[in-house]
Design goal:
Low-confidence stretches: 636-645
Radius of gyration: 26 Å
Number of helices: 13
Number of strands: 33
Shape: globular
Oligomer: single chain
Mean pLDDT: 93
Bound molecules: 2-acetamido-2-deoxy-beta-D-glucopyranose
Helix content: 10-25%
Structural class: alpha+beta
Length: about 650
């Protein structure tokens, strides 16, 4: 027989590969109470990593460390607002390139548990829901509300088709897809909504994919969170009675695999509250119990990462989360290997073979030292530049969504209608500052109004004086009933008995100005104005990476000795909020990919209160060790630790 021509061989090869791909299956075996992968019983050990909290530059490093801990799978949330920041403006490139993230996981041989939303909680702004949903003020989020469903439908019809090729049965890494999140903890209890999502997901992903839900391990919580057709899983942390917790899953799923979708390896933080730490011993004990049960376990978080920019969420009563999402997880915020990592790896090693080969080492950190910043102008001085469209005029205040600004800062300005010679309380109806207002009169700072905390401020001033409230959005509530969290001034402002009217509202595009080089494009701004020293203002400086030292730039952490609260950018990258005056976070993580050796690295700081470093010097310092657990500045009132249940 003549040899087959080359092209036929290629065709044959393709057909064989195709047949192999067609054999890929991932299913629930109800009788065997397990998953089945390619027909064989399968149990996964997984860890959470949010691609939105780790720079793309480090995806592979973190995923490989997870692989080398013995994980079969990773789990990630998909934050809708990260990809659709404005209606129908979709972002899927750079750090938002979820397909590249999934591909990287796949290349490393990691499976993926995809938590597709639309709502995710996640200590992420508004639980991942885009703030523009609030344009109709009465919208009922996470329900069959027609406007809400229309937006969900539109988003999912863009997003889910991108996921389809990544499903396991289509040759990709995604084994299961979560619908909604802890819906049983929400007040709407709308089965039609869950049913709508199920149909929508099936329509885009097909009938084979395993869809599931996650709720707290309690029958009361599972009641409103589950639906026939969506496999019900539970979440619980160390110290829980594992038998009892899985019995509650059995209430919804009498048969099928046991799954803990969120086994807490640590816990979240809030500004002004003690840093959360969870003991390795407790984690190891419960993890071991669950694995001995044959349960599927996802560790939340395996690496927490960072809330860069303005992405942190908040709990209620209002308590925003800090920039670091370290979570006391087995891999630190900066991806460092910890004792917890190795202890977990040892437990996993009792149940399966850990991959051989080196674990990627902890990345080196470098202390670049102190740099002095120069003061530029105040925010008020720069209004024309920061708000190129000019202010919006309104008799009464408008909120952020009404002026189509979703994050950051809006400045509200009016004039005093008369002389206020005795200290007169400035306030808002019903706690209407969301979330902090930095108050000045003719540029002179008067103090801060803060949601739930500081509701009155005494001021004096002359008729016609400019009253400015620079209002900061500190992050939208991500959990519970109140995540329709409007920002800005959401009610009227009163001064004594007078309701203040005739506002100029300046939505501020600070990030664009910083990205385009505050100090380069506007050299004239280098002259600080004569206004009072403590009004919200910009500070800039730069530093060179030392030459002659190999492997620089390296990761680092930045400290703000003497500074109070603000936002920081390096080379235009928004690193997040700093607030050492409140803590517990003191340093911010600076990943090396934003630094360069080929030019000065430019630091821009927006300090909202006081940068009093003494002697008129404005110093920031790069150090090689993070501090996330300072004990200064804690709220005296005791917040009850927010439980997921
Ligand atoms: C754990 O829960 C199971 C089922 O409810 C119960 O039988 C057992 O006594 C509990 N164990 C402990 C240590 O409380
Ligand atoms: C406010 O006080 C100034 C004196 O400080 C006076 O000249 C002016 O008429 C007063 N304005 C009003 C509106 O009462
Ligand atoms: C405002 O001043 C009044 C007296 O004029 C005083 O009773 C009140 O405590 C002050 N309030 C604040 C918040 O300082
Ligand atoms: C302010 O008060 C006016 C008049 O009572 C009212 O019409 C308006 O809705 C209020 N605005 C806000 C933002 O509360
Ligand atoms: C506000 O009005 C009340 C009642 O009319 C009056 O007693 C009070 O003095 C007023 N307060 C101010 C600050 O003008
Ligand atoms: C920092 O700013 C300087 C001008 O002040 C510019 O030459 C340099 O390229 C900037 N550095 C980076 C990394 O963009
Ligand atoms: C903060 O964390 C560091 C590093 O883990 C630890 O050495 C230190 O004791 C902690 N400090 C406080 C106040 O908890």
């Amino acid at each position: 027989m003549a040899p087959l021509p080359q092209s036929l061989l290629v065709l044959l090869f393709l057909l064989v590969s195709l047949a192999a791909a067609l054999q890929r299956t991932f299913e629930i075996d109800y009788d065997g109470s397990c998953f089945r992968k390619d027909g064989k019983p399968f149990r996964y050990i997984s860890g959470s990593i949010h691609y939105s909290r780790v720079p793309r530059f480090y995806w592979k490093d973190r995923l490989l460390k997870m692989k080398m801990a013995g994980l079969d799978a990773i789990q990630t949330y998909v934050p809708w607002n990260f990809h659709e920041p404005e209606p129908e403006k979709y972002q899927f490139t750079g750090d938002q390139d979820i397909e590249a993230f999934l591909q990287t996981a796949n290349d490393l041989g990691l499976l993926v548990v995809l938590r597709a939303g639309p709502y995710i909680c996640a200590e992420w702004d508004m639980g991942g829901l885009p703030a523009w949903l609030l344009e109709r003020e009465s919208i009922v989020l996470r329900s069959s509300d027609a406007d809400y469903l229309a937006a969900v439908d539109k988003w999912m019809s863009v997003f889910l088709p991108k996921m389809k090729p990544f499903l396991y049965q289509n040759g990709g890494p995604i084994i299961t897809v979560q619908v909604e999140n802890e819906y049983g903890s929400y007040f709407t209890c709308d089965y039609n909504y869950l049913r709508y999502l199920e149909n929508l997901f099936r329509q885009h992903l097909g009938d084979e994919v395993v869809l599931f839900t996650t709720d707290g391990a309690g029958i009361g919580l599972l009641k409103c969170g589950t639906l026939q057709g969506l496999y019900a899983t539970v979440d619980f942390g160390p110290g829980t009675n594992v038998t009892a917790a899985f019995l509650s899953q059995r209430y919804s799923e009498p048969r099928g695999p046991l799954v803990n979708s969120e086994f807490y390896t640590g816990w979240l933080d809030h500004w002004g509250q003690r840093h959360s730490v969870v003991s390795t011993q407790a984690i190891v004990k419960t993890l071991n119990e669950m694995l001995a049960f044959g349960a599927n376990v996802n560790m939340y978080m395996f690496i927490g990462g960072t809330n860069f920019g303005y992405w942190n969420g908040a709990n209620s009563p209002y308590a925003p989360q800090p920039t670091s999402y370290d979570y006391d997880a087995p891999l630190s915020e900066a991806g460092d290997l910890t004792d917890k990592y190795f202890a977990i790896r040892d437990v996993i090693g009792k149940y399966k073979r850990i991959p051989e080969g080196p674990i990627p080492p902890t990345t080196p950190k470098y202390a670049y030292g102190q740099i002095a910043l120069e003061k530029l102008n105040t925010v008020a001085d720069l209004l024309n530049t920061l708000c190129q469209g000019g202010p919006i005029k309104s008799v009464y205040p408008l909120n952020f969504v009404q002026v189509k600004q979703y994050f950051g800062f809006v400045l509200y300005r009016t004039t005093l209608p008369k002389n206020y010679t005795v200290p007169t309380p400035l306030s808002t109806f019903l706690n209407g500052v969301r979330d902090r207002a930095y108050v000045t009169i003719d540029g002179v700072p008067q103090g801060v109004l803060e949601r739930d905390k500081n509701l009155f401020l005494n001021i004096t001033g002359k008729a016609g004086a400019a009253l400015d409230l620079l209002v900061e959005n500190l992050g939208r509530v991500n959990f519970g009933r109140y995540n329709n969290d409007f920002k800005g001034l959401v009610s009227n402002v009163t001064l004594g008995n007078d309701t203040l009217k005739n506002w100029l509202i300046f939505p501020l595009d600070i990030d664009s100005l910083v990205i385009h080089g505050l100090q380069n494009r506007y050299p004239a701004l280098r002259r600080p104005s004569s206004t009072a020293p403590l009004a919200p203002a910009f500070y800039v400086g730069s530093f060179l990476i030392p030459s002659g030292i190999p492997d620089l730039p390296q990761d680092t952490f930045i400290r703000f000795p003497g500074w109070t609260k603000g936002q920081i950018w390096i080379n235009g990258f928004n690193l997040g909020r700093y607030w050492p005056a409140r803590g517990p976070q003191v340093t911010l993580f600076v990943p090396r990919h934003i630094l360069t050796t080929s030019a000065p690295n430019n630091v821009t700081v927006l300090e909202l209160e006081s940068p009093l470093n003494g002697a008129g010097k404005y110093i920031v310092e790069f150090v090689d060790t993070p501090v996330l657990n300072a004990t200064l500045g804690f709220d005296t009132e005791s917040f009850k630790l927010l439980s997921k249940e």
